[in-house]
Amino acid sequence: MTERKFEYFLSIVELGSITKAAKKNYISQPSMTQFMNRFETSVGIKLFNRETSPITLTKAGEVYLEYAKKRIELENELEQSLSELKRSVSGSIRLGIPLQMQVFLAHKLLPPFLHLYPNIDIHLDDDASPALEKEVLNGQADCALIYAIRQTYKRLSYDYLEDERIRVVCSKNHPLLSGKKTSSDEPFPVRLEELKNQVFCLMDKNFIVRKISDEFFLRYKFVPKYKISMSSMNAILNMVCSGNGISFIPDYVISSYTKAEELGYLEIQEEQFALKLALVYQDDEALSPAARVFIKFVNEFYER
Fold first, then answer.
1. pLDDT tens string 83-120
2. Long-range contact set of residues 134-139: C-beta below 8 Å, sequence gap at least 24
3. Distance of CA 70 to CAs 2, 44, 61, 74, Å?
4. Buried b (16+ CB within 10 A) or exposed e, 245-269
5. pTM greater than the 0.70 cutoff
């Protein structure tokens, strides 16, 4: 509300009514009244004649009105100038995003970025997360959006953007569930020992989700009796839904899976699993202006 104080102030002046100003700005009437009270307190002088209808300005309010108009005009000029500068940035970015993640990341991030920077070209690479880290390290990519569990290379910068849960999934008709209904919020608890004779459908070893499951098995000295490796998470989910195994799948994949209602959810009591979405890049003078504005944009996007 503080950031919009000039807009709220001008709305009250224009409409002469707290109720109408609140409606115009899509906030409640009590919130607008609180704004007026806090606003006058922060300024230290009465700005509004509330006894009149419509509401009018005091002498101090008239002085503040001129200031508010100039402030908004300056902010608009600044925004226009910055927008013109953004449009002047040109070049290309070599960006890595694993193929499975492009489904939801590319359409969320790239259109608003390209709207701000129409003269920048983006070339996407869709390898697995560990391979994309190496590409950034070797200068083959400017940056990459990957899921990581830790900082792999000291020479790279890792901007952690958000956490992603990994779910332990099976068919909703799996014998382990004993007919119980489950969900991602209410998984069925099992101990690792109960899974010793189960089939595990896992990603190939070059994928980060596979590294997490392998490290987990190693930590608890658990050797899966049956294991199937695949390179497609959707193919794994199809296997799981048909009753052929258990797998570790990130939330973002499940959210776009067309048969998600056929999944059952387990919670291995020994441990929960998670990834971190990270923007990875070499933070040095070799970064192009285009890459720098993209890195800044992505961080600000996730802060919002």
1. 666 666 788 999 999 887 887 777 888 999 988 888 89
2. 135/96, 136/96, 136/280, 136/281, 136/282, 137/282, 139/282, 139/286
3. 17, 20, 14, 6
4. bbbbbbebbbeebeeeebbbbbbbe
5. no
